[in-house]
Amino acid sequence: MPNSDLPPSRLLALTAPEAKDVLARAAGAAGLELIHTTRLSGLLEALQEGPSTATLLSLAVDPVDEDVVRRLSDEANSGNLLLSARDVSLERALLMERVGAVALLREPLDESELAGRLAGVAEEGTAVPIPEHEAPTDGRPELIGSSPAMAGLFETLVRVARSPSTVLITGESGTGKEVVARTVHWASDRRDAPFVGVNCAAIPEHLLESELFGHEKGSFTGAVERRRGRFERADGGTLFLDEIGDMSLVLQAKILRVLEERTLERVGSESTTPVDVRVVAATNQELDRRIHDGLFREDLYYRLAVVDLHLPPLRDRVSDIRELALHFAGTFARRYERPVTAISEKALHRLAAHAWPGNVRELRNVMDRAVLLASGASLRSSELRLGAGSPRASARREGVAGGAYRADLSLQEVEADHIRRVLTFVDGHMGKAASTLGIHRNTLTRKVQEYGLADAVPAEEST
Asked: What confidence tier does 400 reach under pLDDT thresholds 50, 70, 90?
């Protein structure tokens, strides 16, 4: 029976008259109200009355053809689409896939099979349409959310964006700190100049200085030519220093000098180069604790945190989950050219109830996979890989060493599974994962590629 917390639901059906009794019994068993018609005009009129849980179209009824099916599949109120036909063929199965129908049933309809299909659909509740949306053409990043926490963030962001002040963005991994940094840049008077980002934790320490400040030819082995660093490449624009809390004290001192003097020295150079850069830094570390432990310079902290923007974890902005899920579903449906047009109410309820230890990044990945593997036009709760079935949730719950391995697994399978557990436990941070595993980062990168674990590593970490 359908969830009583979900709104009343109905089944629209366009079939031959003799199918009505079977439809009525099957719909009743699934807790659905049946609206039956033998004419396309009658179905179109019923669609205007409001959303339906499901719509069944018989391909044996004139004038139902592929064009009509496609038109109806685009109707927001049609809900989950089911097709029926006297002859089930490969061509019709392909049509079912193209339009995102959840089933292709043989006529005459089998009451038991139909009731089972409808019960599964009814349990999902009303399909919530994905809003039509086009990405901004002006390069504006998309910060999604209307919760009180996000409203306060937006207000502060627009006030500071046009100032030259440095900005420190704090928050857990996966909350969207880079999107906020890009928004600060876009809303500033530097928006037409470069935005250059660097993940300070993703670059080995001995290379990070050259990456940031550049180097002169011959300054070290392999320096075959002069190279401009990220500061110079961002001249006139914005430099985003992600995970700055992981930077060594030596490099922290050099960053502080650039911020104060607006000049830098390339590695191997004895002269200074002026730079005009706005710095936006981000970290998921508790910098006050790292300052107390002697791992982060207090003077650099105060120089960076002229403006402090804190991004709340997704669990503290539950009201944004629905909006984010619909946004990501639409984004990936367009990217993969998938016929996904809605998300079921039950799926949205399940998303809202999840703890989201990986924050917005985890939600984005969940929706990416769900859209890619969706079997119909409306995403169902069973197509969401989260909760107990989520590798990230499993790793958080058990800890890195938690859980026993089956004795029938090969050594490679155990290694692949353990690497995935470690990666999910550290939010895909390759440096931390390599340290935990006791292997070189390059070795870990090779094993991630070998075992196909790229989905456990954020895009910026894998490059």
From this structure: very low
